Fold this sequence. Notes:
Radius of gyration: 19 Å
Shape: globular
Bound molecules: N~5~-D-ornithyl-L-ornithine
Structural class: alpha/beta
Amino acid sequence: xxxxxxxxxxxxxxxxxxxxxxxxxxxxxxxxxxxxxxxxxxxxxxxxxxxxxxxxxxxxxxxxxxxxxxxxxxxxxxxxxxxxxxxxxxxxxxxxxxxxxxxxxxxxxxxxxxxxxxxxxxxxxxxxxxxxxxxxxxxxxxxxxxxxxxxxxxxxxxxxxxxxxxxxxxxxxxxxxxxxxxxxxxxxxxxxxxxxxxxxxxxxxxxxxxxxxxxxxxxxxxxxxxxxxxxxxxxxxxxxxxxxxxxxxxxxxxxxxxxxxxxxxxxxxxxxxxxxxxxxxxx
Length: 283
Ligand code: 2YH
């Protein structure tokens, strides 16, 4: 599992407006728009409520400890979307207590294993890996102006890839799974076959010799250079939640705006929108 470094997130807060524009070029929707699309929710209906919904970000010192700027960056993304967000003054259990005492509607916090959002009214939990996979699948759906009946290659079958593949199958895509550990891809195919039937899910054994025909890729690996140059075409669109980005500098130049990639923004936005969609008492 990838642990973000301060260097990965240093520029995020100051680049949110620019990233929002990039997303609009690639998907025709803003960061918020993609986050709503992730959960099939109506932006106009929900967006007016977000500035009354407070999400407190709790820094966590356990394990490998604080990542400098992590909580502040999550908070900046939430504020950019319009949420009433702040970082708690205290960390860990004291921070959780502080959020409850200050009547937060939700908290977000991350240790070395999980980054979660919790709605403090409904007790529902949203997981960053699941939300991120789903958000990038939603972005790919938008880039394809509808992914139904289109073939998508999912590279990386960990929690993010799994969640993204599931969303793509729900949207009616034909999904091919690839993982450098073939048994992981096979076991995911088996798992999905129960719900979606075996015919819409394929397995790819060799990424280099078999992947020329894909026009849509979800890249969800923690590895560099996973996309061979042979795969790049004018029609290829990639949604890439994987950190580090699996695309070389040379391929990035060829892809131009047919790529959506970030390290935190879409996942956090999707988590936040999911939290507000949970019913608030008094609604
Ligand atoms: O980056 C991570 C984990 N690898 C979980 C990622 C789940 N997608 N955690 C962030 C740790 C943050 C730290 N505890 C802090 O600054 O609060």
